[in-house]
Amino acid sequence: MASPMQATAYPHIELTPEGTPVISGTTTKVIEVALDRLAYHWDADEIRRQHPHLSLAQIHSALAYYYDHQEAMDQQIAKDLRDAGDIEARIGPLADSLRLKLRSRQP
Predict the structure, then answer these.
(1) What single-letter DSSP state applies at residue 5?
(2) What pLDDT, in 10s, does the model give residues 9-48?
(3) What is the pLDDT of residues 36-83, one digit of tens each?
(4) Three-state DSSP state, 105
(5) Of the candidates 13, 79, 54, 64, which has an alpha carbon nearest to the alpha carbon of residue 34?
(6) Where are the alpha helices (DSSP H) in the chain?
(7) d(CA 27, CA 5)
(8) Which is deepest, 11, 51, 86, 94, by most CB within 10 Å?
(9) Where are the domains of the chain?
(10) Which residues fall within 8 angstroms of residue 63, CB to CB, at 6 or more apart?
(11) Per-residue confidence at 104, pLDDT binned at 50, 70, 90?
């Protein structure tokens, strides 16, 4: 049985049993909201438009959590990007091989 989420000092933010900060009552990770801000330069209103299931209060709380834990979260983002690059490098040749096989079967 999974252990319950742990409350934090941030309204609307809980920690999963693994320690991942998520927006309470959702499966949306704080890091996802932070990435929307960082990657697209979206403000809270635009994030709200893109994620209508989140309230502005939830978004602001997620951004506050991110900025208060920025160094650790930026390290996690960098690790996730490296991991994604490693996966892409491993499956790239496989995907190319599959494309060639599929093309060779076309009439």
Answers:
(1) P
(2) 899 999 999 999 999 999 999 999 999 999 999 999 999 9
(3) 999 999 999 999 999 999 999 999 999 999 999 999 999 999 999 999
(4) coil
(5) 64
(6) 30-40, 44-50, 56-68, 70-104
(7) 11
(8) 51
(9) 1-68, 70-107
(10) 33, 34, 37, 44
(11) confident
- If you search the block for the tokens 């049985």, which residue do you land on? 1
CA angle in degrees (0–180, nearest 5) for 48-6-76: 65
Give bridge partners of residue 29 from the DSSP assignment: 22
Alpha-carbon distance of 63 to 49, in angstroms, equals: 16
User: Which tokens hold the place of 79?
Assistant: 């690790």
Tokens of residue 59, six digits: 């978004």
DSSP category for residue 69 = T
